[in-house]
Specification:
Length: 121
């Protein structure tokens, strides 16, 4: 480390592909997050049914921190959830944009209220 600190190696990850599709990442150092860090995901590679592993991870996390929120899901389920959120946001934008196209007065009314002009036109 640049500041002459010593680190303990907990594990080695070989051949990760996380930044560019189909291309290996370069050397990478994973460090422990600070105690005030919020959020994050734990990814576990497995073969077979996810349910036994899900239960084991839930028990392990609960034994370390009973108040910790645990929401196990596969990467595919995570991607589907993100896609649903993006679809909802796109629908909201579409509704707002179509309202603005159908009724152009909103732009004028907004300007007159913000600018402090009279709305008696």
């Amino acid at each position: 480390m640049p500041d002459d600190r010593y680190l303990t190696v907990l594990g080695v990850v070989a051949d990760t592909r996380s930044e560019r599709f189909g291309r290996l990442d370069g050397p990478r150092l994973y460090t422990l997050r600070g105690p005030s860090a919020v959020g994050g995901s734990l990814y576990v590679r497995f073969a077979g049914s996810a349910k036994p592993l899900e239960n084991a991870i839930r028990q392990a996390v609960t034994s370390l921190d009973p108040l910790q929120t645990i929401a196990p899901q596969t990467i595919w389920e995570s991607l589907e959830e993100q896609a649903e959120r993006m679809t909802t946001m796109a629908q909201i934008i579409l509704v707002v944009a179509s309202t603005r196209i159908v009724d152009g007065r909103h732009g004028f009314l907004l300007c007159t209220v913000v600018c402090g002009a009279s709305t008696d036109a």
